[in-house]
Amino acid sequence: MTELAFTILPESEDDAAAIERLHERTFGPGRFARSAFRIRERIAHDRELSFTARVGTLLVGSVRLTPICIGDTPALFLGPLTIEPPFRGRGIARALIARAVEEAKAKGHRLIVLVGDEPYYGESGFKRIAKGAVAMPGPVDPERLLVAELTAGAFDGVSGAIRPDWDQAKI
């Protein structure tokens, strides 16, 4: 496979329609029924911590971080992570995750949570949350609830319901 040149850029306001079309194509209408969507539908993602991937001028991927709380502990919720199908398997998703994690850490955030596959996201520092430690607003396979500590020990003693963090929201 030939190497693909792509650029990771901060998400801009002008990217919103293209990202929504990308979500539509890759996740379909069923995305609205997912528990993760329940969190994101009630609060805006943080555009300063959300990124796009482009091949030339073509938007081929996106990742977003949304402010949440786990109980009373501030955190970020990663997702959706979306890559156009023809561009998958070329390192774009990992590059988007790395950039989002790096920026979140640089801005002083301590935790990022997501719903996904541990074998995939584990390579980016995410690990499974102990069953029952946190609760999502809707059904979620506890094997897929993952956390990355951006500061050592940041998840120690954290528990409770995951909910939007209105205090950190940038609306």
Q: What attributes characterize this protein structure?
A:
about 170 residues; alpha+beta; Aminopeptidase; 9-stranded mixed beta sheet; 4 helices; about 20% helix
Fold blueprint:
Layout: E1 7-10, H1 16-27, H2 35-40, E2 51-55, E3 58-70, E4 73-83, H3 92-106, E5 111-115, H4 118-121, E6 127-128, E7 134-135, E8 145-149, E9 160-164
Structure description:
There is one protein chain. This protein has one domain (7-164): Gcn5-related N-acetyltransferase (GNAT) (Aminopeptidase, 3-Layer(aba) Sandwich). It has 4 helices and 9 strands. The protein has helices spanning 16-27, 35-40, 92-106, 118-121, and strands at residues 7-10, 51-55, 58-70, 73-83, 111-115, 127-128, 134-135, 145-149, 160-164. Strands 1, 2, 3, 4, 5, 6, 7, 8 and 9 form a 9-stranded mixed beta sheet that branches. Strand 2 and strand 3 (58-70) form a beta hairpin. The radius of gyration is 15 Å and the shape is globular. It starts with 6 loop residues before the first strand and ends in a 7-residue tail after the last strand. The model has no long low-confidence stretch (mean pLDDT 89).
Short description:
The chain is an alpha+beta fold and 171 residues long. The protein has helices at 16-27, 35-40, 92-106, 118-121; strands spanning 7-10, 51-55, 58-70, 73-83, 111-115, 127-128, 134-135, 145-149, 160-164. The protein has a single domain (7-164), classed as 3-Layer(aba) Sandwich (Aminopeptidase).
